[in-house]
Amino acid sequence: MIVTTRHEAPPEVQEQARTFACKFGVRFVERKKMSIARLHEMSDYILVVTDNGLRAYSKGTSEPFFFHPGMAMLRIKRLLNGDTDVMVQACGLRKGDSFLDCTLGLAADSIVASFVVGTEGRIVGLESERIPGIIVEEGLKRYESPLQEAQEAMRRIEVVPMHHLTFLRQCENNSFDIVYFDPMFFQAIVTSESIAPLRPFANYESLSLAAIEEAKRVARRRIVMKNHRESPDFENFGFMRFKKMERAFTYGIIEVGGEAE
Known about the structure:
Rossmann fold; 33% helix; 2 domains; 11 strands; four-stranded mixed β-sheet; single chain; alpha/beta; globular
C-alpha cells in the first residue's frame, strides 16, 4: 500500500497523508499529476487522502472504497419514528448494552446498535483488514451527518484493528451482552451494491467453530449471526434462525444466558 493525496492538495492534507503513511509504516508518494493507474504501477493498493476523507483504490477495480453510513441513517430515522429494526430485534438490544461487532465492515449495524444502546452502552467493532479498518475508523470520527443522533452514534464506536478470534481469546468471560457476526456472504448478493467497493479489501475467511466457542464464553446474553439464508453456518454452529424473512439474508441466534427475548 502507498499513501498519496488528491491532485493539488493543500499543505494540511499533504501533512495528514504523511502522518498516515508513518503511522502504518508505508510509503508516502507525492501525487503531482499522476493518475491512479500510474500509482498502481507502484502498488496494488492506493490510499488517497482528500479534504473530505479517505479513499482506497484496488488495482483492477474502477470504484474507490470510502466510508458512508449506508442504510444506517434511514434505519435510525425509522427507530426515531417508532418503527422496529430486525437486527435490533434479533440482538435483543436495549439501552446500556455492550455490543461486540466481530466483523465491522462499513459499520452500518454498529451505528444502529450504538444509537440503540445510547451513551450508557458500549460498541466495539473489530476489523481484521488494514485498509477497511483505516477508512471506517476515520469515517466514524469525521463523517458529518444531518441527523445528529446518527452522528453521535458514530462517534461512540470503538474500532479495534484485530481479528475477532484473537480479540475474543483476550476477553474475560461475559464481557459483552451481545457478540455479533456479519461475515462476507459465501454467495454474493447482486443487490448489495453499497458494499461492492469494499469487496477487494474484505476478509472472506469463513467463521470457525473456535470463534463461536469463544463467543459463547464472552457473550453475556446472546450471539447473533447475519448471513446468507443458504449459508450452512446456521446449522453447522447451532444457530436458531430468528424468523423467516423474505430476503437473501437472515439472522441466527445462540442464547448463552440471561433473558431470552
